[in-house]
Each structure stands twice: as C-alpha cells, then as structure tokens.
Request: fold
Amino acid sequence: MGRTADYLNSAVMAMASAKEFFGNNGRDYAGNISKYYEYVRENDLLLTHTLINPQVNRGVGPSKQPDPFIAARIVEKNSEGVIIRGARMLATLPIADEIMVFPSTVIRSGQDDMPYSIAFALPASTKGLKFICRESFTSDSSYDHPLASRFDEQDAVVIFDDILVPWERVFLIEDPDRANKVNEATDAIVFMAHQATVRELAKAEFVAGLATLVAETIGADQFPNVQEKVVDLLLMAESMRGFINSSEAGARLNRWGLMTPDYVPINSARNLWPRVAPMMAVVLKQIGASGLMAIPPEEVLGSKVRPDFDKYYQSKLSEAEERVRLFKLAWDVAGSSFGGRQDLYERFFFGDPVRMSSAYYAWYDKEPYRQRVKELLHRKD
Amino acid sequence: MGRTADYLNSAVMAMASAKEFFGNNGRDYAGNISKYYEYVRENDLLLTHTLINPQVNRGVGPSKQPDPFIAARIVEKNSEGVIIRGARMLATLPIADEIMVFPSTVIRSGQDDMPYSIAFALPASTKGLKFICRESFTSDSSYDHPLASRFDEQDAVVIFDDILVPWERVFLIEDPDRANKVNEATDAIVFMAHQATVRELAKAEFVAGLATLVAETIGADQFPNVQEKVVDLLLMAESMRGFINSSEAGARLNRWGLMTPDYVPINSARNLWPRVAPMMAVVLKQIGASGLMAIPPEEVLGSKVRPDFDKYYQSKLSEAEERVRLFKLAWDVAGSSFGGRQDLYERFFFGDPVRMSSAYYAWYDKEPYRQRVKELLHRKD
Amino acid sequence: MGRTADYLNSAVMAMASAKEFFGNNGRDYAGNISKYYEYVRENDLLLTHTLINPQVNRGVGPSKQPDPFIAARIVEKNSEGVIIRGARMLATLPIADEIMVFPSTVIRSGQDDMPYSIAFALPASTKGLKFICRESFTSDSSYDHPLASRFDEQDAVVIFDDILVPWERVFLIEDPDRANKVNEATDAIVFMAHQATVRELAKAEFVAGLATLVAETIGADQFPNVQEKVVDLLLMAESMRGFINSSEAGARLNRWGLMTPDYVPINSARNLWPRVAPMMAVVLKQIGASGLMAIPPEEVLGSKVRPDFDKYYQSKLSEAEERVRLFKLAWDVAGSSFGGRQDLYERFFFGDPVRMSSAYYAWYDKEPYRQRVKELLHRKD
Amino acid sequence: MGRTADYLNSAVMAMASAKEFFGNNGRDYAGNISKYYEYVRENDLLLTHTLINPQVNRGVGPSKQPDPFIAARIVEKNSEGVIIRGARMLATLPIADEIMVFPSTVIRSGQDDMPYSIAFALPASTKGLKFICRESFTSDSSYDHPLASRFDEQDAVVIFDDILVPWERVFLIEDPDRANKVNEATDAIVFMAHQATVRELAKAEFVAGLATLVAETIGADQFPNVQEKVVDLLLMAESMRGFINSSEAGARLNRWGLMTPDYVPINSARNLWPRVAPMMAVVLKQIGASGLMAIPPEEVLGSKVRPDFDKYYQSKLSEAEERVRLFKLAWDVAGSSFGGRQDLYERFFFGDPVRMSSAYYAWYDKEPYRQRVKELLHRKD
Reply:
C-alpha cells in the first residue's frame, strides 16, 4: 500500500518547509525537522505515527489518570536527549521504518500537562520499544483473501519503557502553545488531508469497479435498483475528485512559501467521507447477496471435488475459479475481518465524526451566508 | 430570480454555436436557431420551456393515446409555417417572454411518431396559446411570505389550439434522429446542467446561512447534533462548488468551437443533487421545531395585541418582529406551499432520479475501474 | 377530527381515576379533578392544552427571563381563586371548549420557581384570555384543499392578562414535586401516548392507501422501487398496530384501579414515530412527482377551459376531475402549508426527538440485556 | 444455537399437521410427512435445508442451463425410491442430523420442469452426499472470538451424486402445483417466520445490551448522540416484540386445526427486519470506534508483556482483560468475518428484500385504505 507512508511523508514535508515555526528554543528544532525530512526523503523511508493517549479515563487529563505514566511523557532530560515512558495508541503500520509521535489532542498550558507536550521521531526498531498488536487478518492465500493477504497494515499500541529520544530527533518540547497548533500552522493538515482524499478517491473507484463486475457476473446490472446503488458509489468517487480538483485549482503559496492546496474543499472532503464511505461495503453486500457465502477455500481447487466445483460454481459469464475469485475479493472488501477493519478505519480516520463536525462548524466562515439571508429579510420590495 | 431564464438562455447559446447541427433540410434551420439566439440576447428576453407530454397513459406512445392530439403535434404545414395542436406540461414560469418547445423524451423514427418531432419557439403572448396554471402560492405580504411573495414562478400546462409557428421559429421538424440527440450533440445539456448546479450551490449556501441564524437565535447552535445538521448543508454546498470548480478547471473547446465545462463533474452534480437537496427543508424543521408555528401574521404588527407580541415573541438575541421575520423565512423554505413546491422541484428538476441513475450508469465510463479490479485479481504476488 | 380532544380527554380520565394523587392540601384538589372530568365527559367537551413557556431565553429558568411575567404564573391568590399573568405556547386547537394548563417541563422546588407551579383548566371563552394565532391554512374549497379546508386545527400562543382561575378549577398549586410527576404518577402519559399511537396508525394507513391510489392512477404501481416505498408506509402502519396490540394484550390495573395499557410498547411507539413519520410526505412526493404540480384550482371546473381540462388532465384510469382531486389530496398531505405543518407536528408531537431518546434511554430497563451479555462473556466453553 | 433447527422443526410440525395437503397420490405422502415429524421430534434431531438452485444463469429455468443436471433433480424412480443428481445451494448448518430439500422458487407445470419438482429429507450423513463449505470462521479461542468460536454455522453447497431417496422420505414428487404452494397452504411459512422473529428479537436485545456496556465502559453513555443510537437498537427490539405479541394475541386455529399465529404482524416483521438489522453492526462501530482495534490476542495474557497489557488497556470501569473481552465480543458482532457473515445473513435470510417487498405489496390487503381515501374524496362537506 504505502498510503499511510505517503500521508505522513507529506506532513513531514510541510513541517520542514515551515521549519521557522519550530524555532530555536535553546536547541535547533527547526534544523531537526528539516534534517529529518531530508533523511526520510533520501532514504525513502516508510513512516507511521501514533496520536492518541490510552483511553483509561476519558473524563480527566493525562496527569490525573490512575498512573501519571500511562500516557507517554517525559521522565527526564539529559545531555543525550529525552527519556520517554508510557504508551500511545493507535499506531497503524508498525512495520514502518520510523515512528512519529506528535501531539494530537489539545494540551493545556499548565505545569501538570508540560511533560506530555513533545513531538519526536524514532526508528521503529529502537531497542526496547514495544508494539502490542491486534490479531493479524492476513492470510497465506491471495486467492482466498486477495486484500488481507497483501495489505493488512496491522494496528498497535506502542509502549515506551524509558526510551531515549536523541535531541536531534526532538521537534517540540514542553511547548503546549506550539504543540497545539503545529498541524494547522505548518499546513501539515492540508497535505495530510489532501493525500487522504486521493486515497479515498482511489478506493471509491476501485469498489465501484468491483460492484460493477459483481453485478455483471450475476446478471444483476440490468436492474434499476442495482444501477442506482453503483451510481451511489460513482457519485462518491466524483465528489472526492471534485474536491481534489477544486483544491488544486485553488492552490497558493502558503506563508512558508510552499504551494499548498486550497483547504476548504479538502477539509470538506475529510468531513464528507466518513458520512459516505460505509456505503462501499453495504452496496457490495446488497449486490453480491448470498453469492458472497458460496465461496469455498483455495484447497478445493486442487482437491477431488474440483469437477463439482467447476460444474456448480460457474456463472453465465465466467468459469467457476474466476467467479469465486471475484466474489472473494468482494467479500474481502465488504465482509471479512479485513473488510470490517477497513470500514472502521474509514469511519474514524480523522477522529470521531461528531467532533469533527463541531470543529468544521466552528471553522467554516458562515458569515457571507448569514449576510445574504439578512439582506433578503430587509429587502424593500 | 431569472434562474430558469439563465438556464435556457445558456442552452440557446450552446445550440446557436452548434448551428451546423440543425442543418439545412430544405429550410435554413441553422440560421433560424442562430437568429433566435441573437434576438433573445439583444432583447434580454426571459424564456420558459415545456418538455413533457401529458401523462394520460404512460404505457403507450403519443399516437396511441385516446386522442392522437393530446400530446402537442403537427396538424399541417403550409407556406407560412406549421400548425400545432395539443398540450405540453410542465411549463414553469409562464410569465416568460418566450416559450421554447423542444423534444425531451425519445421519439421512435416510425411514421406514427413523426408528427410529434418538432422544436420551435414562440412568444408566450401568442394569440390563442393557453396556460392552465396551478393555484398561486404568492402573497401580498413579504413579511409573512418573504419568498412566495416574490419568487413564485408558477407552473402550467400549455395548450396549443391550432397555433401557427412561423417557419423562422422552427428549428427541427419531422427529424427524430436529430431531435433525440439535440441536447447532447450541441452540448446544451452541459450548459443547462452547469447553470443548474450554480443555482443549487446558491440555494445550499442560503439555506445553510438560514439554518445557522435560526439555530443562533434560539441558542441551539451550541448542540453538537445541531452543528452536525448545519454541516450536512455546508458539505452539500461544498460538494456542488467542487463540481463547478472541477468542471471549469477541465473546460475545453467543444466540437463547435465553444468553451465548454467538463461534463463529468456536472453530470455528477445533477445526479447527486436530488439525493441531498431534501435535507434543506428537513434540517430547518429539525432546528426550528415548534418555533416555526409560533409566527403570527403581519396584521398583528399593527393591531392592539402588538405589545403582547413584542413581549412574548422576543428572543434572547432579537426583538419579536425580527425573530418572527426570520422564522417566517425558514417556514417559507421548509414548510409553506411555496417551500413544498421547491422541495418537489429540486427532487425532479431533471426528471425521475431512478431513471437518471440508470442513464448515468450506462453513460459513465466504468471500464478503467473494472480493469483495476481485474489487474488485482490476477496479480502474481 | 377531535383527535387532540380524545387525547386530552383520556388524560383527564386517567387523572380523575388517580384523584388521590392530587390530594387535599387545604383545598379539595382531588375533588376538583374528579368533578372536572365528569363535567367534560357529560358535556362532551373539546379540550386543548398548552405546555411550553415562551422561548425567550432557553438558558435560564422562568424567573430569570427579562420579565418574570413572560411565562404564565401566579400573581396572587384570593378567596375566589388564583390570578394568572403571562403566556404559554403552543396551544393547538384554540377553538376548543376548554383549555388545560398543566406543567410540562421540570420545575425546581426553590422559592423562585414556586409561582410557576400550577395546573388548572378554564373555558377557552374566558373573558380577557387572548390567543395569538398563526396564519390560517384553511381554504373555502374542499376540492382544492380536501384536508386544510376541513382540518386546520390552528396553533396559538395563549396570553393570560390577570385572569382569575376559580378555586374549583385548580388541580395543583405551588407544589413542584407533584407537578413534576403528575403525568407519570397518574398514568395520564400512558393514555395520551396510546391515543396518539392510534392516531398515528390511522394516519399511516390513510397515507398508504393514498400512495397506492396515486401509484395506480399513473401506472407506477408496477415498479418494484415504487412498491418498496408503499411497503415502507405499510410497515410503518403495522409497527404502530403491533405496539397498540401489544400494549392492550399486556394491559393491567394500575395502582389507582384503572385498566391501563402496557407502557413499554406505547413509549416505544412514541419514540419510533418521529423517526418514521416524515416518510409519509416523502413517499407521496416520490410517487406523485411533477403530477403534484399539474393541479389547477377549482375555478377551472366551471370555466371556459373546462373542455381542455377534461381532455388533457385525464388519466388512463380516471377522468380529469377525479384524477386532479386525488392529486390535490396527495399535495395537501405532502406539500401544502397544511401538509408542511402536519409533518412538523408529527416530528415534534411529544417534544424534541433527541431529548426524548435520552429520556427513553434512561427509563428503559437495559439490565436484563447487560446480564445476557455478561453471561456469554464468562461462559466456560 | 439450534436456531436454524427450531426454525425448520416448526415448519415440519406445521406440515405434519397439514398432512392431508400432501395427499396420497399413489403413495402415502401424508403418512410420510407425519412419520417424519414424529421421528424428528422423538429423536430431537437438528435439521438443515437447502432451497436455491445454483446461480449459473439466472435468466433461464433449470432445464435450460448448460447442463440439465446442475440443479438437483430426479434421474429415475425405482421400487426403492428416487435417484437425485445435481446441486442445491445454500445449506446453512451442514453439521445437522438431517437435510430437507424443499421447493422454494416457483416451478412451472410444463414437462421440462417436472424433474425438478420434489420435496424430501435425508440424513446429512447419507453416503455419497457432498457438502462444499466456505472457509470456516471459527477459532480455538473463545476469548478472541467469543461468538465465532462457538456459533459458526457454516454454509455449504450440497451435491447429490445419484443419491437414492427412499420412498418413505419423499413428500412431494412431480407435482408443481402442490410444490409451489406448500409453504403457504400448510402455514409452514407462518411458523418459520414466527420463529425467525423470535431469533431477531433475541439478537436485537443482545446487541442493545452489548452497545450499552461498550458505551458505559468508555464513558460514552452520557452523550445524547450515543444514547440515540442505542435507542435505535432498543426500538428495533421493541418493534419485533410488538409483532410477536400481536401475532400471538391474534392466533387462531388454521384450516388443519393447528393454533397458528396471525400472519400479518409476522409477515411485516420479516419485511421490516432486513431494513433495520444492519444498524446493529453500525451502532457498535460508531460507539466502539478505534477501541475495536486495540484488542490484542489471547496469547498476550500469558506473555511477558502482560504487565503492559494490564496497565495500558484498563478502563475506568474494568480491568484490561475484562475490557478487551467485551470489545472483542463487539468486534465479533460488528467487524470480524463472523460478524460480516451475520450481517449478510440478516439482510438476506428470507431472500432479496426488493423482491420480498414486491411480494408483500401484492399480498397486503390495501383495499380498506383505498376506500378510506375515496370516502374522503367524495365527502359532501
């Protein structure tokens, strides 16, 4: 895949081009982010990141948890660097070369929260770093699981057991103000969201193609209600394409001199996507129906029931092996554990959709629309 | 408003620039459309049109109805022009200067259907032309009905009682092949759909502003579920803007030499819109709630209960008159007869959404997506 | 109609049978409610009621508004009765014989809120009582507006300008504890909700019949997607019938000796209804489409264009007059101001659906379901 | 589970009580069904069944497929019984004791379709009978997969390779008329649908309990939008309970003397269920969010990272092991392959929802509703 990598690489690129933001607060943080970007770019490294503190008690801040070292934080600073203890969830792609730890949620400026305010990066292979992974969804058979066998990214909780982060890998420290605005101020969020929208477009196109093939294979493509569902997917793809084109047509140099897509369509894309993405699995289920269950495993191909398989699983348009291969792909998108995790991922990629809506509502400039309404209300005609 | 007018004017412009399409089949139809466009443009005329045959029996064609002269058709041709008898529905804006009668639904090439194959335009004030209108939704009070009092377009059935259409106003006649493709071949559909999308964007922005003001007036803007609903409207607006920007960024000269927006985003817009437009009224109702009923008519303002009105209808943010004015506007969008007709209009502007989906499904180039799926299915890894 | 009346009559009946609840706190409130019920029953009176305080500032209680006499409250008590000043919204059916004023929202027990704690009833014709009504939706033509011409209930704000309520019409006074639980403790809420569910069933059945006729008239009843939409309405009706049957099969004597329907299905009905009721108008619009606009007013029937009307508005199944009559009814349900107000009414009949959900969530006994889950989690197999 | 078994056992019970329907067409089919029911009941046997012909070409009947022996059919009849060749899909629960093969889709009475008209039952262990199964979703760990490890029913295609069905196990043969109406005429469909509704109620209650526990564990139960979603599940459960209660309150002796639930609520239940069942997985995903991914496998419990697990995966309300156990259950309902298959199963249990809607539309007695509308249309007031 490499999608997650592209996503973070674009963020590091934006941050490096905004290196002045990181400043030089006793140490050369601007230089650190800049050198880190070059290192990643020149070595073509794959990155992951981890944003959220463990969910022990959502009602209080990290310093008020049962143990103040549950959320990853600074233990001490010494001449070599910073010692980190505690955990972060949810690192996708723990097989990456590098792991970035950046602030995501807002940290207050009080002394209690200071030790949690840090941004850094480390090789994922750093000695002592632990990743506790979920069950793997992969498979040895690309016939049975055409996606899971190739693309299971894994998800993990990362545990820092007094891990040393060398100073040259520290980008922000004990600086809640900068920490809270790093993504917006550097436009990293714009590049991340743009890249995410590209991924979403690719996915919507792929699933629209898949739904078309499934419908055609079983002769369901002639029914208006089936066509309507595939069109829902095509419109989802075209909406995302519209946002991308619009953001690119409106690109401009940002304050750091970097050509940056227009954020309005891109921020709209990332708010629309979790509302529509779940349709992908739903449409495949609606079209594939019970055919998604009649898919025997690969071992049948080389077994003595192969002649039965060839006879009874053929379709009008394709031989049994081909037909089952297609339906297994549909199942891997719409129904397998891999597919279920994909659905979850798309619903929550940028966080809770309700909170995202509130943030979008606050951010969006509604004043011109209010004015238009007020003008009508007081028109003299 | 003038929206319907803009919409049709852009269609005539596209047709005139594609005048070769109309050809010179014994008479100078190319010249007719060209001159008609100039006439409309120079005199800044307002157009309406009428597309659909009366719905007497949907199961059979116009020549098989109880009376072959129910659908408007040619009675005879003479040296002055063509005599037309029968009706067409649904002409919106019968107060226009001109009425265009163009083919919309497919006509077969058989002899029976020949008399129904014609495209022409006439002044709406042509003697003998009858418009049977629905009940008017307008109002004398712009306080009580801020929209209906100004913008009720009316809808009518048009009846041709042996009306003469002079030859210079005929653009197509007894030519089913051209008739069936006139909108696509001239790109008139692209300009009409582009203009419709601009209207939809303006409407979505306006209603988003209105919903924001209603929520703020009653202090409901602080609730995440209310914010989420306004965001649904904002995303609807941004989707339409994305399609417009995308179609303009991808504009190219068409075969007739006219700079033409990219049709893919625009055709997507006109298919997405009827799926989302009904949210406008729904969100206003959900936010305004019973406040949409507590809106006494204008006569109360000058009556002896005015002091009661001022005391009991005020809100935290505004005086009674202002608050009620705002809620009456919301009602005129979401609940009045005018609003109900608007909702219907947006659902069916381009026709039945299910048939539109089927047409979009057939038209959309799904092959690249199919290919991408097939490549994955046969990857050797 | 009489629906609102039945609804309140059943509430008064429940309260009278629970007369001990009202007690004898210096005056015979139990006797008052009992005599009032007999009076209403014997004279077959039509009741309305009004529940909500004016929405001036939702953030603070009635005593903290700009004027403490905005919400209706006690001014003084004397030997004849209680003097009331202030307003209540939203009284539906102000043409009723009697108006009931009962507490709806929770009142705290502090001294400030005392004057707002009262329940009483008065003849709607009481001298000095003012109703400020919204615009009327009625019509002189039952052809043009088959529902609005007969059934517009009106909605009003009621203003008490130092109105005397005689002691025998007072049921509760300065008694927040009883006031806050009167509906639940007397089971009035069960009877009101049961009656409301009966109304909802009748409405769903009627609209299902109407949608069927509209579909048949234009030959759309053969399309699976149209059938699916009518079935949505039929299932809505059957759900309501299931709740009613279930509540009646589970009826039992309540603590006051009154045979009372089971509240669980009935409380479920009143929470499900606002989620599904909006489908009624939507389905009619989806099926009726542009046919809902081609409906000329009654005056056309007696005009010189009547022959045109008869010719062009006929359908396969019915003559023009009959067809238009049917479509006008559909419009009066789905699109006219009357219909728009009906839709709003059904969405908010028992209050804001989000708050209702929260109350239902808190009230519902979820413990047996939790237990079932816990048992599975700790099964030893 | 035994659910599928209960479902079929009730069908056999209904058929046996309607044994006269099967008649005595040369052989004692009435006796066969009667004896079969007693055999199943006395030996407490688990049944499965298989209804659908393979989907090779949906456009033509079984005799017109590439091979007339793709769909299971009669090869020959002899003194011992009937020889069957061909396949049937989709047998759920192939580990059952017995497999029933009954007609499901309509068979025309022509000679070509005769060989496909048969109803019989056989031990699933009959020599030569082949089941080709899908991939198993089960698991060795009831911690990791609390449902899949216990309840994966499997789904299979059944192949008859010249299998002898003894005459006493044949219930219908070469009798398309009876075959096409066996489910309705014997009321087997009523009992099957009633039992399915009971299953659906149990499921909805269970998932509502699970969603409640997940919300409480992470402190999300305080948010109105979360409460609203759990209420959606509770209302789904209460709707099903209303249908069941209603069908039982309306039970009557059928024509065969068997006390039979009222079919109207039960047929409504089976049409409503596929519309609402998908909410179960959706709500769990919406509430559980990324917590559904932070669930390491059982092996972590006994590993050296156990202390880390205990520290970082605890929640405010429960220890790590307990919390993860709960979330794994939610995942097994909402996201795992087992959960994905459950979602598919509930969507298609009784067949394609669109076709079911069409059948329900045709079956439902809409005439009383039509009449009510017509009465209003012609009221003289």
Q: What stands out?
A: The mean pLDDT of chain D is 93. The first helix of chain D runs from residue 3 to 17. The radius of gyration of chain D is 24 Å.
